[in-house]
Design brief:
single chain; 138 residues; three-stranded parallel beta sheet; LRR_dom_sf; NTRK_LRRCT; Leu-rich_rpt
């Protein structure tokens, strides 16, 4: 018998960040509602990378405009995860705009993605070094 979790709702909280692997132990998640979390300003695509056929709800979350949420803009443009019908917004200082209207440069450049990849490789190397390092007490 499966003790599977299919829905997760975290709304009206002081949530300000989600660890990239927060849902990794719940691969069967199909619905995630993060709406109305005023402290949540950015969100990594890595939170959702292992989930398939997911529906996200993020109404009334004002993200910080920038490359960190460019993936979310692309998902909304492509109609992924049920985002196309939502009014997602981001802010630059005091100005709030529709996420679809966000115009950021250098997010799609090879330099930006190379830096992201290098950072991920470095963090994986550190993890592997810790995992496979000889025990000094042996």
């Amino acid at each position: 018998m499966c003790a599977c979790v299919f829905n997760r709702t975290i709304t009206r909280s002081s949530l300000d960040t989600l660890h990239p692997r927060v849902f990794s132990k719940n691969p069967n998640l199909r619905y995630i509602n993060l709406s109305k979390n005023p402290m949540l300003k950015t969100l990594s695509w890595q939170v959702f990378e292992h989930l398939q056929h997911i529906e996200l709800h993020m109404e009334e979350v004002v993200f910080s405009c920038g490359c960190e949420i460019r993936w979310l803009q692309l998902w909304q443009q492509r109609g992924k995860a049920g985002l196309s019908s939502q009014q997602l917004t981001c802010s630059t200082g005091d100005t709030e705009i529709r996420l679809l209207d966000m115009n950021v440069t250098n997010c799609g450049t090879n330099r930006h993605f190379r830096e992201l990849l290098e950072n991920r490789i470095k963090s994986n190397k550190v993890y592997l070094m810790q995992l496979y390092a000889p025990n000094p007490l042996d």
